[in-house]
Every structure is written in C-alpha cells, then in structure tokens.
Design goal:
Largest interface: A-B, 39 and 35 residues
Structural class of chain B: mainly alpha
Number of helices of chain A: 22
Strand order of the largest sheet of chain B: 2-1-3
Distance between the termini of chain A: 28 Å
Strand order of the largest sheet of chain A: 1-2
Largest sheet of chain B: 3 strands, antiparallel
Shape of chain A: globular
Oligomer: heterodimer
Helix content of chain B: over 70%
Number of strands of chain A: 2
Number of helices of chain B: 20
C-alpha cells in the first residue's frame, strides 16, 4: 500500500466505521463500544504504519500526497499530504480518539450508538484538518468537525450543556466564516494574468513563487486577510480575550469530549496559525507579532490566576488550558527556531497531559458525581493507583524537569528570550516565565486539597481504585510523558525541518526585506529557499536536526 | 396568425408535456371520480419525468434560435430550469400523497394544479418576451392562489389564499404597468430587442440613464419580481401565506415559485438591461437597488427567523433569507464598474452560482419540509419547533435527515448548501469592485442562520418531552422516497459539486453568448 492510500485510509476509516455502526441495531451496546474502539485503535495502528513509512529525514517535504481535481473550474482540489508537523498531530489525534472512546465505556449509558458515531465522525474531521493542503478542503473539514462536537456536548453534556454547546458553535462560526471570505479573496487574487485562481496551499505559500501573497496584494489587504484568518484561529486556540467559550464547553462536555477538545481541537487553532496565517502572510505576522505576544502573556497569567481560584476541578483544568495554550502562542510568535519547536512540542504535551487530566477528572466524577475540590481530601489513602497517575500527570502539566511539559516550556521560553543580539522578546519571556510558577501553584494546591490531608468525608472512604480499563486508558499517556521528557529529540526530530520551512524561513525572508540583514546572526536568506538549513541555525539548544547535507 | 411549425412545438415540448399531463389528470378525475388519486399522482410524476428527461436528452448545445415569433428561446437556461422545476414539483407530489389523504383533501385537481403551476414556471423561464413572461407568471400565480386555499375547512388556509390573491394581484398589476412603461420607453416587449435598442440609444448619446420612463418601468418590474420571490420589502405576505397554506403546498411554493421567479428575474435583468455603454447608467442603478434589497432581505429574513416558534413561519423567513443570498448572485452577475466591462468569465460564474444555488435550495428545502410532513402529533400535523422534541432520539434516520437538510440550508460543509454559498461568495468577490459590505453581511447573517437551524436540531436531539407528548412518524413510501432523493441531492451536490457547477457554468455561458450576440 502506498503511503498516500494509507493516509486516506487513516482519514476515512473512522467515518466508514461510523457508517457501519449506523446500520447496526442500537440495542447492541457492546458491539457499538467495541466496534468504535476497534476502529479507532486500528486507525491508530495504521497511523503508526504511516509513521514508519514517513521519511523523517526529510520532514519538511510533503509526503503521502494525494492530488485529485475536485471542482476544477474554481481551482478546488482534493489535496492531502503530511509533513512532520501534520504527522505528529495526526498521531496525537488517533491516539487520543482511541483513548477517549475507551474511557467512555462506563460513562455513557444512554444513546450509546449515536455517541460513538459522533466520536468517530469527529475523528475523521480532525484528521482531515491536519492533512488538507487545499484551502477549501481544509475549510470543509474545519467546519464539518463542528457538528459532531455540537452533539457530543449538547446531548451527553452536563447541566448547562445547551448554553455551552451553542456558545461553542457560534463563537467558532463567526471566526471561521470570516476566514472563508479571506480564503475566497485569496483565490480571487491568485488569479493572475488570465490564469484561473487556486486554493492550493503549497503554491500559495511558496514565498518566492508568483502567487506569494506579497506579490499579489497590497499590504493593507494582507493585513485584513491575516486578521480574518487570525480571528478564526484565535477563537479556536482560544487566545485571551476570545476564550470565554472554553471553560463552559469544557465543564459541560462529557469526559471524552473534553479530552478531544483540549487534546486536539484547541491545537487546530495553533495549527492554523502555523500552517496558514504565518506562511501566507509572513510580513504581516512579523508586524503584528508584538500584539500576539502580549495577548499570549496576558492569556498565560490570566488563565493561571483564574485557575487558581476555581472550586471545580474541571474548570481549573480548563483555565489551565488557557494558560498553557498561551505558552504555545508565545513560542510560535517568537519566530525563533527554538520557540516554534517548543510550541509544537507543547501542543503535543498539552494534548497528552491535559487529556490525561480530563480523564482523571472524569474518573473521579464517575465515582463521586461531583467535581468540587472541597468535596475531596485525603484520597491518596483510598485509591493509591489513581493517586500515582494523578501525581505524574499533574507534575507533567506543571512542567517538572524529566517529564514532557518541561521540555516544551523551556524551549518556548528560551526561544522567546532569543539569541543574544538577535530577534528577542525578553520582556515577554520574563512575564511568561511567571506562568510556570503560577502553574505550579494552582496545580499543587489543587492536588494537595484533593489527594492529601485528612480523609474526613465518609463518601470518600469507600471509593474504588482504578480498574484495568481505566489504567489502560491512562498508561499510554503516562508513558509518553516520561518518554518525551527523557528523549525529546526523538519527537523534535520529526518536525524540526518542517517548522523551519513553514515558519522560520518565511519570517526571516520577510524580516530581511523590511530591515537590513544582520549577517552575524543569520545569513541573508535570499539564497536560502529550498537550500537547506543555514549553518548558524543548525545547532539550537536541545534540538539536533538531521545533518544539513541530507537534503540539498 | 401563422401556424406554429414543428420546430416551434419542439422548443416548447416540456411545457406541452407537463400541461398535457395536467389536463389529462383533470379530465380523468372528472370522468372517473372514483379513480385512485395515487394513480393521478403517478401520472403527474410520469409527465414531469418525461418533461425533465426531454430537456435532458435534447439539452441544447451552442446558440439556439428563438421560436414562436421571437417569444421563446429554448436554450440551455430553459432546459436547466425545466429540470429544476420538474424535480421540485416531482418531489412535492411525492411529499403530498400521504399528507393529503391524512388531511382528507386528496382530490385529483390538486395534482393538476401543481402541474399547471409548473407549466407557468417553465414558460417564465423560457420566454424572452415580457408579455409572455407575464402570462407564465399568471398561470403560476393563479394555480398557487387556489392551492393556498386548498384546505377549505381551515380558516387559516382561506385567509392565506385571500391574502396571497390580493397582494399577488397587486404585484401583478405593478409588473404589467412596468411592462407598459418599458414598452413606452423602448418600443419593444422582446427583452433582447430592448437590449439592442438600449445599446443603440447609448451609441447615439441618448443614454438610458436619464430616461425616466424606462427607470420607472424597470422599477415596477423589480417590484413584481420582488413580490414573487419574496424579498424585503415585498415579503410581508410570505410568512402568513406559508403558515396558512397546507404544508405540502407551502413546500412546493417555497421552491417552485422562487425558482421560476428567479429564472425570469435573471433573464430579464441580465438579458434585457445589460449595461449598454458601460458608463453612468441604468445598470449601476439597478445593481445598487438590488444590492440594498439583498442586504435587507438577508438581514430581515435571518434575524426574524430566529424568534419564530412556528416551524412553517421559521422556514418562511429562512426562505426569504435564501432569496437574499440568491439576489447577491444576481447583483454580482450584472454589476459593471468604473468603465470596465466585466469579464465574461466572472459574469458567467455569477450566473452559474445563482443557478446552482437555486437547485441546491430546492432539494434541501423540500427535504426539510418533507420531515415536517412526516411527523404528526396527537393526530394533527406538527406546527411548532418544540413539537419536534425528541424526534431525533426516537427516529434516528429521520433526525439525521432533518439535520442534513438544515445544515445544508445553513451552508455547512460538506453539504451542497455550503458549495452553493461558496460559489455565490466567489462570484461576489470576483466583481470588479467587490461590494465588501455585502460580502460581510452575507457571512454574518449566515452565522445568525445557524442559530435557528441549530435550534431545530437542538429540539430534536436535546429536548426530552413527555412520552405521551411526542410527535409520531406517519409516513408512506412516497414520502420516504422523496426524502431519500432529497438527501441524495443534498449530499451528492456537495460531493460532486464540481459537476453541478460545471453544468450551471455551461448554462451561464450559453446564456451570455445570447445576451452578447
């Protein structure tokens, strides 16, 4: 099987499984559970096969490419493919989907059939977003994903589910429809010299090509289009002040919904910035970066402070997401190699750690039917296995050295601080670093109140420890936390060149055009496109990219 | 009077087939009053399939000469709308059969009237003469007036018919007056000839821009069309009429009357009043008026729909909003600017977008009405959105279909409705000087539309009514077939949007080739 057809299989297998489930009688709950889990596990295994087919020495090049004309009159293609960034995010998606399906076996007792159908459809939508290479195809998946999530929160959610799900959908829609206008505008502008326009991302983001945005548009126009794209992505991330839908959606969503929401959906906003906003409009991104850094810092500190005062564990984790995602935005808009690497790594870390935290919150909720911090205390004595899992996950989220969270946060702060004399944002880095401290404060304090202290509530004394299925859902995530923490290079190496080509290189070209190049920091990138890595950038702190000689 | 030649007759074959089938149904019902009404329904569908198939098989390629003394042009544009109307009417008949029996109004003339409406619609699409268009409009309208009051037992139905009749006649009078004024200004009723004369006048320096008679005439034509397709401010009738008319008629009215109205609208505006001198003039004014009407229509339709508890009224306002979307495509199709001729491509694309959207709207909207018709509560048809509560959990397939249709109307990918909106937006962007405010309004009102479409979905899936208080499924295979076909169209036109748009684009090219001759 070629890697292209493997990729399409990974993409559509969940949707096909959903179709099969739709045809089965709804009384057969066991079939639904195991069918859905089997399909998502198989998807994960196939995505591992995709990983083994993937040539990670050349991870900036799009691989497993499928290219079929879809609506040729309007330049719309069915074009999918993966580079290193897409691949890791696809892996994260397939893993978290399988885990969240497994985690729902006991929690979901009514309308089981529809539940698994929606989860599987959601999986296809999410993978589609990460592998699309055509703006319209991307938009199709981006929007199609909304509906399963709408149902997941709206049907199986908590007491305020209707409000939460409606808010989620409307917030997302406002941003994404503005993005649609921007996409169509790009198409119109890409129609040059009698040639029909195109939605092909690869052609549009080729900075030296004839269709580069800087060649076909006014600066003012580019600014507006950037903002239209950014509105969709900033709402999805969510960046402060567009974050208000997130705590509601998280708190009301069923556990699996929260895991997917935190683990994958929020990453789509960042992925959008990384794959669309910045490569399409590097000069605008460079110009507005201070604003984004400021919003990111506000998000980090605000999220942490609000998390600190929460009474509800799930709400606390939700606000911690706002803070952590602020880190990702910070690293991304620092535009240094370390910063962007850290940002992508932190996307994965956040998916793993916060996904696991939501699973843990869900497990405790299934046992006690409350999430109030004050309702717990001293649980360590009753449920030790749970406690150990919780501890590791919590420390990973805090960023303890040795676990995954540390690597990401460190790279981000390092990259934001910047090399001496080079592009740097030391104020943002310093302020962002306080978020690490605050993160430790709210997480440790929460852990202390829930797990330690006196076991003074009679309801808490009879709690059951984790069963095998629950351990199985958490264990892969915990192992990944250790693995990424111990050997981050293995992960970083999967996308180091890809982020260079997607973000750093376009930004440096744009910087070179607006300011005289500082040759002692980075060589002028005029000869750089496609010419591999400039030597001065090939030895960043914690990452060692493949030898430059491997890709001429 | 010259005898029509064979060529003349062939060019109006679909009209003859549909009209003939309608008469046959009427006669058979009169001769054998005991005849099964389902047989008559089948006969009507047969007629529609024959007409649609005829249009498909004899799909005109290239230039087509006008026939019947320059009254009719049986071009690809006509064929396209013939097929759209045949699909719309055919699906409406399938939706009606069981509903009519349930409501005790299953008579043969119902089907005959639907057929006559369709004939009127096809005549409107095919005509290039204003009087002939008017005749088509009246055939369509009169049949619809009767259909709106078909449930004579229900006072709402009577009220609906009366309202529709009074306001409709008023609008027809406007239209007729407009024709007279245009004739006075240009000396012709043939829209292609009008176009020629306007170009001629522009060449001699007597531009039409200052011709008050012509402006007044065009304005009145716009009022007439505006009423038929229900755009703001000529929409007041439609929620009341939609609510009062039998639901199967409402379904039919919301698609067929609109499709026919837009067919003639586009033909007259884009074919008859094309910008002759590309300077300060008529078309700038028409497009400015249409742009503001489109904006108002999208705004009012979408915003008012949000607060409607009655599902038929909600769908009425939603169909007003959709008329607004389609109108933006017409604006894009005619808007010239800054002394530059629009590229033919961009114009063809805009017309193609309008055609494609009309087709998509037809299948999606009929599907949504079909689901409403399929449900019954305490032995009566459902009226409120809250009556759908729990239907999604109880009837998963029905709920899934309704969700599909509503999401298509809302324009969510990968349904056909998304591509309809995408093509319209693309047309708007491709204008020489894009009306950005219209574009942004289009998009923001679409967001508003999600509020009410998802409101129905919410009611179906997330509200839990008492067991005894739930709507029950009352359906037969006709309705199921109609729903399945609509769903196929809604998904198929999404996945194969490229093909659908190719056809629409081809029709638009042929249309423009004639207009530019």
């Amino acid at each position: 099987m070629t890697s292209a057809s493997l990729l399409n299989l990974v993409l559509y297998l969940p949707a096909l499984a959903a179709l099969v489930l739709a045809l089965l009688p709804k009384e057969q709950r066991e079939w639904m559970k195991w069918g859905a889990f089997g399909a998502s596990a198989l998807t994960f295994i196939l995505s591992l096969a995709l990983l083994s087919e993937f040539n990670s020495n050349d991870n900036a090049t799009v691989q497993a490419l499928t290219e079929i004309p879809w609506i040729p009159q309007l330049g719309i293609q069915y074009k999918t493919g993966i580079d290193g960034i897409s691949l890791v995010l696809v892996l994260l998606t397939t893993l978290l989907s399988a885990i969240s399906i497994l985690s729902s076996f006991d929690a979901i007792r009514e309308r089981v059939k529809e539940y698994y159908i929606f989860l599987l459809l959601l999986e296809t939508g999410m993978i589609g977003v990460f592998v699309s290479l055509d703006l319209i195809l991307f938009y199709v998946f981006w929007e199609a994903m909304l509906i399963p999530m709408y149902f997941l929160i709206g049907i199986w959610g908590g007491p305020r589910k209707l409000y939460a799900t409606f808010k989620f959908v409307l917030y997302t829609l406002v941003g994404s429809l503005l993005m649609l206008v921007a996409i169509i505008w790009i198409y119109m502008r890409s129609s040059q010299g009698g040639q029909p326009g195109t939605f092909d991302l690869v052609r549009l983001t080729d900075a030296s090509g004839p269709l580069a945005m800087s060649a076909v548009m006014h600066p003012q126009e580019r600014l507006w289009l950037f903002l239209a794209f950014a509105s969709a992505f900033a709402i999805k991330v969510p960046m402060w002040p567009f974050h208000t839908w997130l705590p509601d959606a998280h708190v009301e969503a069923p556990t699996a919904g929260s895991v997917i929401l935190a683990g994958v959906l929020l990453k789509m906003g960042l992925y959008g910035f990384l794959r669309y906003c910045i490569p399409l409009f590097p000069d605008v991104a460079l110009k507005v970066a201070p604003w984004f850094l400021a919003l990111a810092v506000i998000g980090i500190i605000y999220g942490a402070l609000v998390a600190y005062v929460q009474q509800d564990v799930k709400r606390l984790v939700a606000y911690s997401s706002v803070s952590h995602l602020g880190f990702c935005v910070l690293g991304l808009f620092a535009f240094t190699r370390e910063g962007v690497q850290g940002s992508v790594l932190q996307m994965i870390n956040h998916g793993i750690s916060t996904g696991a935290l939501f699973l843990i919150v869900g497990m405790i909720y299934e046992r006690r039917h409350t999430r109030e911090i004050s309702a717990f205390g001293g649980l360590w004595k009753v449920i030790p296995v749970f406690a150990v899992m919780f501890l590791i996950t919590m420390l990973s989220s805090v960023g303890l050295p040795g676990l995954n969270g540390f690597v990401g946060e460190f790279l981000i702060l390092l990259g934001t601080w910047g090399p001496p004399g080079g592009p740097n944002n030391q104020v943002a880095a310093a302020l962002g670093a306080t978020g690490v401290i605050l993160g430790a404060v709210y997480m440790l304090w929460m852990f202390q109140r829930v797990m330690q202290g006196p076991l003074d509530r009679p309801e808490n004394q009879r709690l059951l420890d984790l069963n095998v299925r629950e351990i199985a859902t958490l264990l892969p995530l915990v192992l990944l936390m250790f693995w990424i923490g111990a050997a981050p290079n293995a992960t970083l190496r999967m996308f180091d060149q890809a982020i260079y080509r997607t973000v750093v290189l376009p930004i440096e070209s744009a910087r070179a055009q607006t300011a005289p190049p500082r040759t002692e920091i980075a060589p002028p990138p005029s000869g750089a496109p496609g010419a591999g890595l400039p030597p001065s950038l090939s030895q960043p702190a914690l990452s060692s990219p493949a030898a430059p000689g491997n890709h001429p | 009077m010259p005898v029509p030649s064979a060529k003349d007759l062939l060019s109006i074959m679909p009209q003859l087939i549909v009209g003939g089938a309608g008469m046959l149904v009427l006669l058979m019902d009169a001769i054998w009053p005991k005849i099964s009404k389902r047989l008559l329904a089948g006969l009507s569908i047969l007629g529609l399939v024959a007409a649609g198939a005829y249009a498909w098989v004899t799909w005109p390629r290239g230039a087509v000469e006008p026939t019947l003394q320059n009254m009719v042009r049986g071009d690809a544009y006509t064929a396209f709308f013939t097929i759209v109307l045949a699909i719309g009417t055919g699906l409406s008949i399938l939706l009606s059969v069981d509903y009519l029996e349930r409501e005790g109004i299953s008579h043969g003339e119902y089907y005959a009237l639907l057929m006559f409406t369709t004939v009127g619609g096809i005549i409107m699409a095919a005509s290039i003469n204003l009087i002939c268009i008017f005749i088509g409009l009246e055939i369509l309208s009169i049949a619809l007036y009767i259909l709106a009051g078909y449930q004579t037992e229900r006072v709402e139905s009577d009220e609906s018919a009366m309202k529709y009749f009074l306001l409709g006649s008023f609008a027809s009078a406007f239209f007729l007056y407009g024709i007279a004024l245009v004739y006075g200004a240009t000396g012709s009723l043939n829209i292609e000839q009008i176009q020629d004369r306007l170009v001629g006048a522009a060449a001699t320096g007597a531009g039409p821009g200052k011709n008050f008679l012509l402006l007044a005439g065009v304005a009145m034509l716009l009022v007439g069309f505006g009423f038929k397709v229900a755009v703001v401010p000529f929409h007041i009738w439609s929620p009341d009429v939609y609510e009062g008319a039998p639901t199967s008629v409402t379904a039919f009215m919301s698609v067929a009357a609109k499709a026919a109205g837009f067919a003639a609208f586009l033909r007259v505006i884009a074919g008859g009043f094309q910008d002759p001198g590309q300077t300060e003039n008529l078309q700038v004014q028409i497009s400015a008026v249409l742009a503001s009407v489109a904006a108002l229509t999208m705004l009012v339709g979408n915003v008012v729909a949000v607060v409607q508890p009655n599902i038929k009224r909600m769908l009425a306002y939603s169909s007003i909003a959709h008329a607004g979307y389609i109108l933006t495509g017409i604006v894009a199709a005619i808007r010239p600017s800054g002394g530059l001729a629009m590229t033919n491509d961009a114009q063809a694309q805009a017309i193609g977008a309008v055609l494609f959207y009309t087709l998509v709207y037809t299948v999606s909207n009929l599907g949504a009405f079909g689901v409403v018709l399929a449900l019954q509560k305490r032995g009566e048809e459902i009226t409120n959105i809250s009556d759908l509560a729990g239907a999604g959990a109880r009837y998963p397939w029905l709920g899934a279909l309704m969700t599909l249709f509503l999401l298509s109307l809302a324009g969510l990918p990968p349904t056909a409705g998304f591509f309809g909106k995408l093509f319209l937006l693309q047309a708007l962007v491709s204008m020489n000087t894009p009306l950005i405010w219209l574009l942004v309004l289009f998009v923001l009102t679409s967001v508003v539309s999600f509020a009410y479409y998802l409101g129905v979905v919410k009611s179906m899936y997330m509200d839990r009514p008492e067991e005894s208080d739930q709507a029950v499924l009352r359906t037969d295979w006709n309705l199921k077939l109609a729903l399945a076909l609509s769903a196929f169209g809604t998904i198929g036109l999404g996945i194969w949007a490229g093909w659908g748009f190719w056809v629409a684009d081809h029709v638009a090219d042929a249309f423009l080739a004639v207009a530019a001759h």
